[in-house]
Amino acid sequence: MRIGALWNKLAEPKNIPRLFAFSLGIILVIGLIVPMALNPDQLYVRPAPQEQIDDGLAIAPYDRGGEVLTQPGSIHPQYPENAASLGMITGYMSPLAQFVSSISPYFGTSIYSSPGGLIDEILYYTRGFDTILESSILMMSFVIASWLSINYTMDRKNDKKEIKEDVKKAISESRKVANEVKANDEKARAKQLRRDN
Amino acid sequence: MDFVTLGGNLLGVIPLGDIVLYLTPFNLFLFAVLLGFTLLIALSKPETQVEATMHYLYNTEVKVGPKELKQRRFLSIICGIASAGAMITGDLFNFTLFMALVGILNIGIVSAVKQTSVLNSAFNYGLIAMMCSLPLFGGAAIILAATGTLSLAVLSQMPASPMVVFGAVLMLIGILGESGVAPFFASKAEMFRTAGSPYIVIIHLSSLFIIVRAVEILLLVLW
User: Fold this and answer.
1) From A68's CA, which of A97, A122, A134, B201 has a CA 20 to 30 Å away?
2) With a CB-CB cutoff of 8 Å, which residues 52-71 of chain B face chain A?
3) Which residues in chain B have Cβ-Cβ distances shorter than 8 Å to A38?
């Protein structure tokens, strides 16, 4: 294939998502051979898998210790000096959560039942700016979606100008087709005549 | 590579918990230019286009209506502020979030238009922007898993392992797709072919600035 034809294909908006998906797929496949290992020295550290379950803690594997408002739990932020009272509500659990954790050893295995304070501290204290941005992304998509649903920019049913143009286009196209058919007809007839003679 | 080598002396920081915004002359310059441009957009009137018609003796005027103007101006101002924020952020995940916000606002600015070809290319760009969230956030997550941190100041002091390089490549393809660099330019270039110039130009400008900032961030992470 000539390179000009390739460039022309790249200029078609329809082909771009396919090309992007293809190149992304290639990079992800290459990623399979890259050596991957979790660095144990993580922010917001958590204990090794199964360690707390073997110890028989009630809210394993998310027990981070700490007492509400008296003793901070174990969280390692990047900049401790920016979050002076971090960890103070890590151990907080609602009365219902305390009750469930007292009768079941599986309470901590789902993220929404992990000690409530921890997620709040990361979402609204150390990484609060990220949470603001995430919700503003959501808000902007709602703004766009509500504009589109109210004004419905893709609607062409009642657009008189559009209908007029479409009719014009359809007429000229059908005329073109009719002319082509006529020309082909004559050609075929001439051929037949020649053959007969 | 160090902050000081790339951006000049550190003038100060804005600490927001673990997310620390850095003020170096380089980043501050980009930030100020974008904010100034956003101010110009907020004050200026949109341009009108005249389309010539083939075979017939009339021209069509493509105007931005008052309702459409309000929506597009609002989204462009937010887009300018978001890209200005991406210029001074000092956190990898924060940067990808700003990038995703700019991507969705770019679609929003052209989605208020009534031209079918523009809407069609905006739809195709939207597909790319949706796909981009995987490499963008995935790349940041892989770098976090490999190094244990997201702060650019700490990342710039760390040596790059193969896993970090792979995460950076993933992020790069996400940024390339989201900002419409060649060879993924066609759908984004078609989006510009409509009236309402200053609002259209912010799409262009935000991706331009974000590419510059992304190069700086990749240098910080990899060197």
Assistant:
1) A134
2) 67-68, 71
3) 145
